[in-house]
Amino acid sequence: MFQNIVFQTPAVIFGIDALKQIGQQAAKLGAGSVLLITGPQVKKAGLLEKTESFLKTEGISVKVNIQDRDTPEPATDVVEATAEIARKGDFDVIIGLGGGSILDVAKMASALCTNPGKTEDYFGRERVPKRGKPTIIVPTTAGTGAEVTKHAIFLDRAINVKKVVASSNLLPNVAIVDPALTLTCPPAVTASAGIDAFIHSAEAYLSKNANTMTDALALESISIITKWLGPAFADGQGMDARYHMSLESLMAGVVLNNSGTSLVHAMAYPVGGEHHTPHGVTLSALLIACFEYVAVAKAEKMAALARAMGENIDGLAPRDVVDRVLDAIHYLIRSVDLPASLTDLGISREKTDIHQWAVEAHKEQRLLTRSPRILSVEDIEKIYENAFE
Q1: CATH of domain 11-182
Q2: Any idea what the Cα angle at residue 146 is, between residues 257 and 7, rounded to 5°?
Q3: Over the stretch 82-113, which tens digit does the pLDDT of each residue have?
C-alpha cells in the first residue's frame, strides 16, 4: 500500500544544556523583546533566572508572566488574560517555559495576538486562520510533547469539559528540549507526564492515521519509556533516565502531531473537566479499558506493541497477546503509582452520569474518526463502565 505522508515538526534542538541556545534562537527570530510565560515552580527551581540570563546575553529584553490557575489544565479566561498582556506589549517572540499547560497557554496566546476573538472560537480542527507571533517552546517535564505539536488543551468553564484547539498555525517555530531541566520534576509529575507520552505513542500507533514514519518512532519511544519511566520516577536525579525520558517524550510528541490520538483522549476530556484531574492521570485510569475494546481491530499491531514493551509472545494466540499487552501496561501504570481504573482515581460510579460522559466524548469526532473501531455512544458507555472495574 502506498501512502501520501505529510510530516510536520518545528525546528528541534535536543540535548543536555540545549537551553543555552535560547538567546541565539530568539535572535534568529528577530527578537528585540520577548514575553516569557512560565509557572511558579519553574521560578522556584531556578530555571527562570537561568533562561533570562541566556536571553539577556543576546541583548534581548525579557518580560516575565508567571501563570497562576485553579485547575490542572488552564481555563480559557487564563489564556485571554495572557494574550492581552502579549498584545499590549507588542513582543517579537513568545516563549513558553514549563509543563504542558504553560506551553499550551504560550502557543494560544501567540495565536490570539494575530487572530481575533477568544480561545473558544478556535476549538476544533484547523480553525486558526493565521500564525501568531513566533514561538519558542521549552518543556520542563517529559511527557506532553507540547513543544512539537499543533494542539493546546483548555478547560471550557461554561460546560466544564476540556477542549482542544488543533491547528497547524499553533505549531511552534522552535522546540528546545533540555533533559537537565526535568531534574527538578517531582515523582508524581514524572509519572503522569510519562504515561501521557506512552499513550501518545501507543494510541497514535493504533490510529487510522498512522504511517510508516510514525510507526517507527512510536515503537521506539514505547520501548524507551517501558525501560526508563520507572528509573526516572524512582530517582529523579538520574541523568540517564531523564535523558531517555526527554527523548522519548519528544519522539512521542512528533508521533502525536502526525498520527493523532483517539479514544483514550476523547473519553478523558469529560472526566478531567468534571473532576479536574491531571491529564496524564485521567488517561492512565482509562487506558486499559479503551485498549481492550479496540484490540480486536489491530491484532498485528497489538503484537508489535507487546514486543516493543519487551514481552515474549511467541506461540501465543491473538487473545493471549492482548492479555499480555494489557498486563504489561497495568504493571507499568501501577509501578509508578498511577491509577489503572476510574475507581483507583477515586471517582464514584454511583455519583457519575456515565451516559452524559459518553455523549460528550462521542462529540469528539476529531479524535474518534481515527479510532480503529467505530464507536457509538453506547459503546463508549460500556468502556466507561469497564474502566470502573
Answers
A1: 3.40.50.1970
A2: 25
A3: 999 999 998 999 999 999 999 999 999 999 99
Name the region of 43 (left: φ>0; alpha: ψ -120 to 50; beta: rest). alpha
Report the candidate in 4, 23, 21 with the shortest Cα–Cα distance to residue 13.
21
DSSP 317: -
CA distances from 157 to 70, 76, 163 (A): 12, 8, 10
pTM of the model: 0.93
**Given the C-alpha cell 460500556, which residue does it identify?**
382
Strand partners, 98: 139
Mention every residue, 6+ apart, whose C-beta is less than 8 A from residue 132.
94, 107, 109, 110, 111, 112, 113, 114, 115, 169, 170
371's CB contacts (< 8 A; 6+ apart) are 207, 208, 262, 263, 294
What is the residue extent of each domain of the chain? 11-182, 187-387
CATH of 187-387, one of 3.30.300.30, 3.30.565.10, 3.30.70.1140, 1.20.1090.10: 1.20.1090.10
What residue has cell string 527538578? 184
- Percentage of the chain with pLDDT > 90? 92
pLDDT tens-digit profile of 156-210? 888 888 889 999 999 999 999 999 999 999 999 999 999 999 999 999 999 999 9
The sign one gets for the Cα dihedral 197, 199, 202, 207 is negative
**Sheet strands side by side (includes 33-38):** 11-14, 174-177, 135-139, 93-98, 33-38, 61-66
